[in-house]
Design brief:
Length: 150
C-alpha cells in the first residue's frame, strides 16, 4: 500500500516539475522576444541617406528591393520634411539653450532617408549589395545594435 502512494507522489512531483520548467522557459522566451522585437521596431539597423535630387521612381525601386531582405521588420522612407519632424520630436526634452543649431541650419543639413528595421538575427550583407554603386545614395549608416539582454 505505501508503495502505491509513493509512486503517485513521485508522478505528481515530476508533473509539477515539468509544468514549472515549461512555464519558466515560456516566460523567459516571451520576455526576451518582446524586448528584442520592441527594440528593433524603434531603432533602424540601417539608415540610407539619399541625395536631395532623388526621384520617387528611384525611391520606390529601392524600397521594393529592400523588402526582399531576410529578417526584415519594416522599411520606412522619410522625406526631408519628415526627417525634420523626427529631429524635432527627438529634441523636445532638451532645453533650448543646449541646442546649438537653428531650425534652418538643421533643415539644410537633412536629407531624405530610408530606415531599415531588421530582426536582431538578420544580416545586413544583402543590404550592402543592394545599395552598392547607386548614384542617388549619399551615405549608408549601419547602426550598432545592443547586446541581447537576459
Amino acid at each position: 500500500m505505501p508503495r502505491k502512494y509513493l509512486l503517485k507522489f513521485l508522478l505528481a512531483v515530476i508533473l509539477v516539475a515539468f509544468l514549472a520548467a515549461g512555464w519558466l522557459y515560456y516566460d523567459y522566451y516571451q520576455r526576451n522576444t518582446y524586448q528584442d522585437r520592441n527594440y528593433n521596431k524603434n531603432h533602424p539597423a540601417v539608415t540610407i541617406y539619399l541625395n536631395d535630387d532623388v526621384n520617387i521612381g528611384q525611391v520606390n525601386t529601392l524600397l521594393e528591393n529592400l523588402k526582399s531582405t531576410k529578417g526584415l521588420i519594416m522599411v520606412q522612407y522619410l522625406t526631408k520634411e519628415e526627417a525634420f519632424g523626427e529631429y524635432k520630436k527627438g529634441i523636445q526634452n532638451i532645453p533650448p539653450e543646449e541646442i546649438q543649431l537653428t531650425d534652418d541650419e538643421v533643415k539644410q543639413s537633412l536629407s531624405p532617408k530610408v530606415n531599415v528595421y531588421l530582426k536582431s538575427s538578420a544580416s545586413t550583407d544583402s543590404i550592402k549589395q543592394l545599395v552598392e554603386n547607386k548614384s542617388f545614395i549619399k551615405n549608408v549608416v549601419y547602426n550598432p545594435r545592443p547586446p541581447k539582454s537576459n
